[in-house]
């Protein structure tokens, strides 16, 4: 009787702890650099801020585009996860405002990413579609809006996707300073105040 042959496919390798730390440090440094914008995204500067050599950067992210895309994806996932965490820690209206502050940082990172790649729009072959992203963001803040409607701190007749579009329309198209961002977000919050 013949013994069953073992699969020849290698088991997926886990990253070593130091490699994972380096990757995380590179992503954090890239996200900070993209949020600063100014069109001066430098791989060398990202590696320096992360405390690693340029070779380590290239082992994790073989191209500029790979690093920028990974930083953007991490920013999106953090933004989506923040809504639930904020609702656990804050009253609904405050949680929504804190999430909108996070959204403003996301908008800055997105503009920085476009500058870094010198693109006018995200390449749809590599990026999730805009409508899908909008829906994911709307799903993330739906519980916050529902809790605010329940306690009377937010309008009950507002759809989450409308809030996302309102914030995106206020923050995405142009580069604004911190004071103007705060004014724009206060206007968004005023629009969500119960009548």
UniProtKB/TrEMBL annotation:
Biased composition (Low complexity): 1-11
Occurrences of domain HTH tetR-type (ranges): 20-79
Keyword Transcription regulation on entry: yes
GO MF entry, a single one: DNA-binding transcription factor activity
Superkingdom to which the source organism belongs: Bacteria
Region (Disordered), start-end ranges: 1-20
PROSITE patterns: HTH_TETR_2 (PS50977)
Residues of the DNA-binding region: 42-61
Entry keywords, A to Z: DNA-binding, Transcription, Transcription regulation
Protein name: TetR/AcrR family transcriptional regulator
Organism this protein belongs to: Streptomonospora mangrovi
Lineage, uppermost ranks: Bacteria, Bacillati, Actinomycetota, Actinomycetes, Streptosporangiales
């Amino acid at each position: 009787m013949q013994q069953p042959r073992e699969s020849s496919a290698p088991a997926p390798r886990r990253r070593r702890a130091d490699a994972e730390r380096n990757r995380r440090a590179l992503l954090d440094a890239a996200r900070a650099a993209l949020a600063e914008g100014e069109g001066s995204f430098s791989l060398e500067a990202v590696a320096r801020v992360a405390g690693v050599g340029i070779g380590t950067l290239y082992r994790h992210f073989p191209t500029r585009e790979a690093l920028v895309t990974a930083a953007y994806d991490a920013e999106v996932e953090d933004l989506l996860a923040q809504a639930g965490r904020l609702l656990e820690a804050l009253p609904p209206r405050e949680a929504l405002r804190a999430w909108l502050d996070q959204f403003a940082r996301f908008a800055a990172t997105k503009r920085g990413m476009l500058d870094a790649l010198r693109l006018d729009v995200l390449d749809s072959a590599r990026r999730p579609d805009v409508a899908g992203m909008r829906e994911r963001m709307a799903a993330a803040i739906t519980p916050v809006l529902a809790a605010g409607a329940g306690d009377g701190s937010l309008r009950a007749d507002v759809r989450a996707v409308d809030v996302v579009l309102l914030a995106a329309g206020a923050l995405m198209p142009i580069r604004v300073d911190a004071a103007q961002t705060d004014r724009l977000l206060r206007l968004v919050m005023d629009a969500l105040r119960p009548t």
